C-alpha cells in the first residue's frame, strides 16, 4: 500500500486519502487529476476495504473507463476491479435503466437510438408534419429538442413558450418525436440521462436503495457535465455525500453540447463542506509548452486563477509552420513526422495531428498515405455508423424489441422483399387505426384485406423474425447474427452484387460477426444480445482501436481531451477556422479554451501550423494566421527559417525546403511525386508500392502481409494475410491500406 501512495505528490496523496465527504480537485492540465481518481479507487478498494461494486466512477469516454480499470488492476492485482461500476454516464445509466425502467412504463428490452437514429426519426416526423427541412434544418430541430430535453422542458411546456419560428416548428416535432420514441420502446441519448431522474421521482424507494448502494461516486472531466448529469450525480450522492469530482474550468469545451461550466464553479455552493485540492505541478509538458499554454489561457476573463508549473525542463521551442495551401501544410506535417522518427527516434504512436474541424482530415489523410505514414483517424465515420452495420444492428434490435418500428422500417424491405413504400403506408394506417405496433399490424395483416402477393411477402418476413427470436432465446449473439445473415440473405446479396463497394460491406459484416463471436466467448449471460447492443449503441467515436498499434493519431481537438502525446501538430491555425467564427466574446473564450486543451496535450514537441489559403465550400480562400498564435510569447516560437518568431520578418517565405530541409538533412520532396490533386498522379495508381511480401496496416483488420495483388485500376485486389483477422481479399481502392 505504501507503494501506491509513494507514486503521488503530497497534495495528490491528500486528495486520495480524504475519502469521506465531498471533495473537489480543481487543477490545470496534466497535473494528475485523472491519476488521482485512479489511485483513489485503488486506495478505497485496497486500504479502506470498500467493495468494488459500491464505487461508481464516471468517465468521459468508454476508452478512458477501460484504461482506468486496467490501470487499477495493474496497481492492485488482476481482477481487483471486478464489480466496479465504471463507464460513461450513458453506459452506466443504460445499465441501470435495463433493471428498473419498467417502473416508468418501458420494458427492459428498450432500444437505444444514437444521434443518427434520432435524426432520421426527426426527419421522418418532419415529413409527416409537412415541415420542410429547407425551412428549418434537421440539425437545428434536433439541437433544439435536445436542449429542451436536457433542461427538462416537456413538449407541452415547450410548445407554450416557443418564441421564434424555428422553436415553434421544433416544438411540434418534439411532441410527435417523444411519442414515437415511447411507442417504439426506445430511448435516445438524452433520455439515458433524463429517465433516471424520472425514475427517482417515481420511486423514492429505488433512489434510496441506489444511494445506499453507491457509497462512493467519482467523476472525471467534471467541467463538461451537463445539467442532467449534474442532477443525477447529486441525487445519487445525497445520502453518503462521498462525491469526488475533478476538473479544470479552463478545459470546458462542450458548452455547444449542453455542458454547463457552472456545475464546477458552483460545486462548493452545493456542498459547503467541500475539501478543495489544487494541484500545481504539471508532469506532462516541458516548461516551454506550459509557458505557451499559460500565456494563452490567461487572456480569458472568465476563469478561476490557477497556478501550473512544469515538473520538466525547458525542452524545445515551439515550431511554427507556414504553407501556401492545405496540401502543402499536410506535406510538411508528413515530412516532420518522418524526420522525427528517423532522426529523433519517435515512434508513430507518439505523434498526433489535431485539427479544429473533421473536414480537415481528408487532405491530411491523403498526404500521409502518400508519405506511407500509418495513421489512424479518431472520430470520423465510425465502424458502427456504416450502412451495412446499421442494417444488421436494426435487425438485432428488432429481434429483442419488436415494438421498435424505426428498426422495422429499416429492415422490412432490406434485402428487397417487394414490400413497397405504398404498402408500408397502408400498413401503418392499419396499425394506427387499431392502436397497435407496426409489427402487430403485419402479423394481423391477413385480416386486413391486403393483396396476396404482399401477404406472402409479409408472411415470409414474420416467419424469419420469429425464428430468429427463438434462436435469441436459446443461443448466443453469434448464433443469432450468423443465422440472421443466412436467413435474411443480406450477405449473399452483397456477394452477388460483386462490386468493390459491396465486397467491402460484406467484409464489414464479417467483422461484426467476429465481434459477436468474441463477445459470445466472453459473455455467457442470458441477457447477451441486449448487452451486445448496449455496447454497440454506446460506442463513441473516440473509443476504437487497439492501443498497441504503431500509428500516428489524427483527431479533432475535442477528441483529444484527456490524452497526451510526446509530439503534437496543431494544424489549420487560421482566423475563422481556429478560432472558428465567433460572434460573442464567450464563444471566443471557448475557442481559446479549446486551443489551451490542444497545447496542453503535448509532452515534448509542439508544432503550430497554418496555411495562407484553404478550400472552403469548394472555393480557395485567402487565410490570415490565427490570432491565437500571437498570444504565445514569440520568443519561444521558432519559425522555419530557424529564427524565433520575435525576430522573424513580418512575411515569411514559404519555400517548402527551408526548415524541413535543414531539419532532416534532405531536400524537400518535389511536388510531382507527392501526388493527389492538381497535376500530380493519383494515389490509386499502380506505383503505390503494393506488392507481394509488403507489410500493410488496415484500419480495422490491423497489420498483415500482402500475399498477392491482381487486376488494375478500380478492379485492383490484394490478398492479405492479417495477423489476427486471417486471410482476406480486399479492393485496394476502398481498403485504405497503409504500407508499414
Ligand atoms: P488533463 O487535464 O489533461 O486531463 P490530468 O490532470 O488528468 O490532465 P493526468 O493525465 O492524470 O493529468 O496526468 C498527466 C501525466 O502526468 C500522466 O502521464 C501522469 O501519469 C503523470 N503524473 C501525474 N502525477 C504524477 C506523479 N505524482 N508522478 C509522476 N507522474 C505523474
Ligand atoms: Mg485527465
From TrEMBL:
Keywords of the record, alphabetical order, are:
ATP-binding, DNA-binding, Helicase, Hydrolase, Isomerase, Nucleotide-binding
- Region: Disordered; residue ranges are 645-691
Which domain of life does this protein belong to? Bacteria
Q: Where is the UvrD-like helicase ATP-binding domain?
A: 6-286
Q: What Pfam families does this protein map onto?
A: PcrA_UvrD_tudor, UvrD-helicase, UvrD_C
Top EC class of this enzyme: isomerase
List ligand-binding residues for ATP: 27-34
Query: Which InterPro entries does the UniProt record give?
Result: DExx_box_DNA_helicase_dom_sf, DNA_helicase_UvrD-like_C, DNA_helicase_UvrD/REP, P-loop_NTPase, UvrD-like_ATP-bd
Its EC number(s):
5.6.2.4
The segment(s) forming the UvrD-like helicase C-terminal domain are 287-562
Which reactions appear under catalytic activity for this entry?
Couples ATP hydrolysis with the unwinding of duplex DNA by translocating in the 3'-5' direction; ATP + H2O = ADP + phosphate + H(+)
Please give the family membership noted in the entry: Belongs to the helicase family. UvrD subfamily.
Supply the name of the protein: DNA 3'-5' helicase
Amino acid at each position: 500500500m505504501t507503494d501506491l501512495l509513494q507514486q503521488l505528490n503530497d497534495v495528490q496523496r491528500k486528495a486520495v486519502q480524504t475519502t469521506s465527504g465531498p471533495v473537489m480537485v480543481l487543477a490545470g492540465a496534466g497535473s494528475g487529476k485523472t491519476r488521482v481518481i485512479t489511485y483513489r479507487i485503488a486506495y478505497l478498494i485496497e486500504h479502506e476495504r470498500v467493495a468494488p461494486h459500491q464505487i461508481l466512477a464516471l468517465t468521459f469516454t468508454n476508452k478512458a473507463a477501460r484504461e482506468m480499470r486496467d490501470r487499477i488492476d495493474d496497481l492492485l492485482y488482476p481482477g481487483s476491479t471486478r464489480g466496479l461500476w465504471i463507464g460513461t454516464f450513458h453506459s452506466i445509466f443504460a445499465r441501470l435503466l435495463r433493471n428498473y425502467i419498467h417502473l416508468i412504463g418501458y420494458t427492459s428490452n428498450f432500444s437505444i437510438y444514437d444521434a443518427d437514429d434520432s435524426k432520421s426519426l426527426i426527419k421522418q416526423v418532419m415529413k409527416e408534419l409537412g415541415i420542410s427541412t429547407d425551412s428549418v434544418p434537421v440539425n437545428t430541430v434536433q439541437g433544439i429538442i435536445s436542449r429542451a430535453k436536457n433542461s427538462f422542458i416537456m413538449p407541452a411546456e415547450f410548445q407554450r413558450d416557443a418564441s421564434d419560428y424555428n422553436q415553434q416548428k421544433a416544438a411540434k416535432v418534439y411532441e410527435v418525436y417523444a411519442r414515437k420514441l415511447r411507442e417504439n420502446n426506445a430511448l435516445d441519448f438524452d433520455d439515458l440521462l433524463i429517465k433516471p431522474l424520472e425514475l427517482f421521482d417515481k420511486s423514492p424507494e429505488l433512489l434510496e436503495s441506489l444511494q445506499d448502494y453507491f457509497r462512493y461516486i467519482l467523476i472525471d472531466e467534471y467541467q463538461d457535465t451537463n445539467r442532467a448529469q449534474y442532477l443525477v450525480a447529486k441525487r445519487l450522492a445525497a445520502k453518503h455525500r462521498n462525491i469526488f469530482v475533478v476538473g479544470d474550468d479552463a478545459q470546458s469545451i462542450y458548452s455547444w453540447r449542453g455542458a454547463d461550466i457552472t456545475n464546477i464553479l458552483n460545486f462548493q455552493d452545493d456542498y459547503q463542506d467541500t475539501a478543495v485540492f489544487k494541484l500545481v505541478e504539471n508532469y506532462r509538458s516541458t516548461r516551454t509548452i506550459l509557458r505557451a499554454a499559460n500565456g494563452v489561457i490567461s487572456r480569458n476573463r472568465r476563469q478561476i486563477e490557477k497556478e501550473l508549473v512544469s515538473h520538466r525542463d525547458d525542452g524545445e521551442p515551439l515550431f511554427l509552420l507556414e504553407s501556401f495551401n492545405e496540401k502543402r501544410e499536410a506535406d510538411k506535417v508528413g515530412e516532420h513526422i518522418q524526420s522525427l522518427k528517423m532522426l529523433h527516434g519517435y515512434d508513430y504512436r507518439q505523434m498526433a495531428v489535431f485539427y479544429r474541424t473533421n473536414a480537415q482530415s481528408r487532405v491530411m489523410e491523403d498526404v500521409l498515405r502518400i508519405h506511407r505514414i500509418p495513421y489512424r483517424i479518431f472520430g470520423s465515420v465510425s465502424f458502427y455508423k456504416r450502412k451495412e452495420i446499421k442494417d444488421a444492428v436494426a435487425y438485432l434490435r428488432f429481434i429483442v424489441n419488436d415494438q421498435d418500428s424505426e428498426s422495422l422500417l429499416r429492415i422490412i424491405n432490406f434485402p428487397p422483399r417487394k414490400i413497397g413504400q405504398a404498402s408500408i403506408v397502408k400498413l401503418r394506417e392499419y396499425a394506427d387505426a387499431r392502436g397497435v405496433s407496426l409489427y402487430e399490424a403485419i402479423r394481423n395483416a391477413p385480416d386486413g384485406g391486403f393483396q396476396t402477393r404482399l401477404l406472402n411477402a409479409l408472411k415470409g418476413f414474420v416467419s424469419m423474425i420469429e425464428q430468429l427470436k427463438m434462436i435469441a432465446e436459446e443461443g448466443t449473439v453469434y448464433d443469432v447474427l450468423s443465422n440472421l445473415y443466412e436467413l435474411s440473405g443480406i450477405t449473399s446479396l452483397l456477394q452477388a452484387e460483386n462490386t468493390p463497394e459491396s465486397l467491402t460491406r460484406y467484409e464489414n459484416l464479417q467483422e461484426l460477426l467476429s465481434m459477436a463471436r468474441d463477445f459470445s466467448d466472453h459473455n455467457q449471460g442470458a441477457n447477451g444480445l441486449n448487452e451486445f447492443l448496449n455496447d454497440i449503441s454506446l460506442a463513441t467515436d473516440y473509443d476504437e482501436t487497439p492501443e498497441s498499434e504503431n500509428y500516428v493519431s489524427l483527431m479533432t481537438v475535442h477528441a483529444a481531451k484527456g490524452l497526451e502525446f510526446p509530439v503534437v501538430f496543431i494544424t489549420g491555425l487560421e482566423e475563422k477556422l481556429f478560432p472558428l467564427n465567433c460572434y460573442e466574446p464567450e464563444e471566443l473564450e471557448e475557442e481559446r479554451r479549446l486551443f489551451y486543451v490542444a497545447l496542453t496535450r503535448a509532452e515534448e514537441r509542439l508544432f503550430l501550423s497554418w496555411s495562407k489559403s484553404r478550400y472552403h465550400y469548394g472555393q480557395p480562400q485567402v487565410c490570415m494566421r490565427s490570432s491565437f498564435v500571437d498570444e504565445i510569447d514569440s520568443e519561444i516560437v521558432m519559425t522555419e527559417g530557424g529564427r524565433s518568431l520575435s525576430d522573424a520578418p513580418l512575411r515569411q517565405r514559404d519555400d517548402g525546403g527551408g526548415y524541413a530541409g535543414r531539419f532532416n538533412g534532405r531536400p524537400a520532396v518535389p511536388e510531382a511525386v507527392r501526388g493527389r490533386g492538381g497535376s500530380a498522379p493519383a494515389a490509386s495508381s499502380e506505383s503505390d508500392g503494393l506488392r507481394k511480401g509488403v507489410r500493410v496496416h488496415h484500419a480495422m483488420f490491423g497489420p498483415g502481409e500482402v500475399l498477392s495483388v491482381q487486376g488494375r485500376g478500380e478492379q485492383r485486389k490484394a490478398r492479405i494475410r492479417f495477423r489476427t483477422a486471417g486471410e482476406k481479399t480486399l479492393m485496394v481502392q476502398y481498403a485504405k491500406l497503409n504500407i508499414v
